[in-house]
């Protein structure tokens, strides 16, 4: 089992991880399987872009019903398929621009501009 790459993982940290792995083995638990299960559990608990976007959308009470419907449809059609299931804290600026650039490449510049505005607002809301 690898515990990290030097110098990102110090020798002391590697020893702690080794000791923890030995405790798991002594308890009859495969350390790799345990690590995988913990990672999957954290992924389930992660807050996704789509969940934050829907929460942001629900908080905008000033919008008319028709405008609210159009905003949500735009997000569902253009952003959620590409980045909706990803954890909100895993994004870089480049990741957020990819679906917007796809829309821009199709010639829908106004839609791309509004998506960028909404993405910025969603990320500000997430913070």
Automatic annotation (TrEMBL):
This is Phage integrase. The keyword Lipoprotein does not apply. Belongs to the 'phage' integrase family. Residues 47-127 form the Core-binding (CB) domain. SUPFAM superfamilies: DNA breaking-rejoining enzymes. One of its GO terms (biological process) is DNA integration. InterPro entries: CB (IPR044068), DNA_brk_join_enz (IPR011010), Integrase_DNA-bd_sf (IPR038488), Integrase_DNA_bind_dom (IPR025166), Integrase_recombinase_N (IPR010998), Phage_int_M (IPR053876), Phage_Integrase (IPR050808). Pfam families: Arm-DNA-bind_3, Phage_int_M. Residues 1-20 are annotated as: Disordered. Keywords: DNA integration, DNA-binding. It comes from the Bacteria. GO terms for molecular function: DNA binding.
């Amino acid at each position: 089992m690898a515990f990290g790459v030097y110098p990102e993982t110090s020798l002391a940290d590697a020893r702690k991880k080794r000791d923890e792995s030995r405790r798991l083995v002594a308890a009859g638990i495969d350390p790799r399987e345990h690590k995988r299960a913990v990672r999957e559990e954290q992924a389930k608990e992660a807050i996704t872009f789509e969940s934050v976007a829907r929460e942001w959308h629900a908080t905008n009470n000033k919008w008319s019903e028709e405008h609210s419907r159009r905003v949500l449809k735009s997000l569902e059609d253009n952003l959620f398929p590409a980045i909706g299931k990803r954890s909100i804290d895993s994004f870089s600026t480049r990741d957020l621009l990819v679906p917007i650039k796809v829309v821009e490449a199709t010639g829908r510049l106004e839609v791309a501009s509004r998506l960028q505005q909404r993405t910025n607002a969603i990320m500000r809301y997430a913070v």
